[in-house]
Amino acid sequence: MRMPRRRPRLREGSADVKAVFKRLMHWAAAAAATAGLVPAAMAEEAAIRNWQLGFQPSVSDMMDDISWFNNLTLIIITVITLFVLALLILVMVRFNAKANPVPSRTSHNTMIEVVWTVVPILILVVIAVPSFRLLYKQLEIPEYEMTVKATGYQWYWGYEYTDENMNELYFDSYMIADDERASVAEARGVTVDEVPRLLAVDYDMVVPVDTTVRLQVTAADVLHAFAMPAMGLKIDAIPGRLNETWFRARETGVYYGQCSELCGNLHAFMPIAIRVVTKEQYAQWSVAAQDDLDTANEQLLAAIAADRKVAAITKDGTEAVAAN
Ligand SMILES: [Cu+2]
Q1: What pTM did the predictor assign?
Q2: What is the pLDDT of residue 35?
Q3: Residue 27 Cα, ligand 1 centroid: separation in angstroms?
Q4: Distance CA 95, CA 92 (A)
Q5: Is residue 116 scored above 90 in pLDDT?
């Protein structure tokens, strides 16, 4: 199996740290200078952008709900923090020894005590209800159209298409090492940015768009976890146990995730790539892959490239018309 190259470790010592800091600042400045010049420099078809903040763009219902829930809790936390801050400032200004030399001797106030018990309970209920709804949504599998089983190994993933018409299609999926990215990009006919470092794999999991996929997840050696942020997926991969979840991607493209349970020394080097393709492309791929996976993938990439070309021409055409 391929081992990722080791990077030099950060040594202790102020001189080294200073040098590294200087270099980082230099890079940051260079990156900031070029950021405006290279839009869409990163993988165009993946959800990766330069200077990305927050979550990856959502391509599923589930992730929409997770983002919504994240925003809700963010608002609640912000309001609580500001409220507590205001109380602190009020106490410091109005009730310090100078401003309030004779303190009140009140020891009880039933009204306030009821309020500070009931209000937090209500806040927790407001958080708990959508939280549990989300958990159930992830684990209650709706009517699904196909099944893929992902198995975590030290340190790669294996994908099995368990539906009857798939003829027990199975393949392993390894990360593409840094020094192989250029050659893989060339072979695939894409730019090297579309083989993102530490994320791209040799064999993507391929699924059709707008299709409910039941995802079964297990592990063959130690604990791993299958995570795909763009689709709101995260589920443990446990040896001897079959976990189930589901997803339905609404946009084509390649999406990346990573093993999310510390599973050994190459834990960081077993990324997950799901390639969402059109239903027609998937139909062709799934038949071809049963015979010869490499050829099937080549054909799939060619079909995607052809589609993109058509899309680019159409876009240029509309833009040209709009310009006139
Ligand atoms: Cu792992």
Answers
A1: 0.77
A2: 44
A3: 31
A4: 6
A5: yes
